[in-house]
User: What shape does this take?
Amino acid sequence: MRKKRSRFPLFILGLILAFLFILPLPKERKSEPISPIAFAESLDLYKDIWSPSGYVNSPEPVPEISARAAMFIDLDSGKIIYEKNSRERRPVASLTKIMTALLALERGNLDHKMTVTEYAASLGEDSMYASAGEKFTLKELLYALMLNSANDAAETIGENLAGDRNTFVSWMNGRARELGLSDTNFVNASGLDEDKNDYSTAYDVLVMARTAIEKFPVFTEITGTTDQFFEECPDHKAIFLSNETNLLRTYPGCFGIKTGYTPKAGLCLVTAVKRDGKRVLGVILNSGDRRGDAELLLDYSYMSLGVVR
Assistant: This one.
């Protein structure tokens, strides 16, 4: 005799199916757009992304300056003290060399000797007057790069470090992306006017400078040097370097960092000052009087931070 199969499991299955049909379907959620930088941060692609946060509330009257663009921050808190057209793309001349120095410090060895190429030696304007075939340590070249704004030093660093200048420029642009700088594009290691696609912003230059300052104490050791002399040796002639940064000798606490000028970029300056334990970093682009503008904004910055000159 066959046993009757229980219908209980079928009954339970029917109840489950009915319950599923009665339940409302979940509504489709629209995904929120995500910025390229936020996406990169979520994947930890850009470990060095930093941006100023907040503003210093200043009771002081805001000074009028001649510069087309500028940005000054409290370097320790990251708060913005002053900005004017800080995201406007502009040529930045030799301020480009800050990125060249940053890459040299990140990828190079300060004691490594680099050979001056024919191309590097042929560059005019600001120069350390190196001759093709001479050899300098990377540290010596960095002094020439930041004190004399030497174009021959910039190209020597790029060609020796990367193997050729185009590869070095690709490193520069890649590093800018890693720092989250979407308004910067380099075409050479020196900042000489070569191409209309060579540009940056006051904001982006400030981030580059801040990165070099915070990562490498030797960077500010170099930029805070007024004069440097390298004696003649079998590798190279005697070299005397004098720092061109306008306020280094005249504004209390100034420790650099870099001047820049081309007809397209105008007078540019990155300045850094430490006084009473407070550090201020500022960028000025296309100024009619970069020294005067910098003094006005530094005075304003320190008064805003409660430090009287």
Observations:
- The two ends are 109 Å apart (CA to CA).
- The first strand starts at residue 69 and ends at 74.
- Residues 22-32, 39-43 have pLDDT under 50 and may be disordered.
- The CA atoms of residues 100 and 189 lie 6 Å apart.
